[in-house]
Amino acid sequence: MKYAAIDVGLKRIGVAVSDGKVVFPQHAILRKNRNQAARDVDAFLKEWEVETLIVGLPKGGAGEEEMTRRIRHFVSLLAFAGEVVYVDEYGSSAEAKARMQGVVRQKRDGRIDSIAAQIILERYLEQCIRDS
Predict the structure, then answer these.
(1) Residue 73 CB neighbours (<10 A)
(2) Could you list the pLDDT tens digit for every one of the 132 residues in the chain?
């Protein structure tokens, strides 16, 4: 089974893929507008033959409700026919920045966004293993 995770932001969408064992961050998708971003995410999911899409949702924080609404709306724009699973992304961006500490300056190229997607997918797969 192939999995992908997305970390949806207002400027970039972090993406990662997995065969169920190892998780690989990919180049983030730059977001010019939501329709273009949805097309790019759909192309990514098709290219990687993804069967399950893991989507990070913010839990807690001041903008939780608004961001959750925006993320769910974005996912509704996708033509993806596989399973969509929403998971708590709490702390994934901070953990991604910590992982990248000293490796790269805090560039706005999307690497941290995709590392956050990698973390979201790793957490999901670890939970699946614990639950089985």
Answers:
(1) 11
(2) 899 999 998 899 999 999 988 999 999 999 999 999 999 999 999 999 999 999 999 887 667 888 899 999 999 999 999 999 999 887 777 777 777 776 655 566 678 899 999 999 999 999 988 887
Range of the domain at 70: 3-131
Which three-class secondary structure state does DSSP give residue 6? strand
Query: Per the structure, how many domains does the chain have?
Result: 1
What residue spans of 78-110 are helical by DSSP H? 92-100
Q: Which residues contact 100 (CB under 8 A, 6 or more apart)?
A: 111, 112, 115
Contact 25, 118 (CB under 8 A): yes
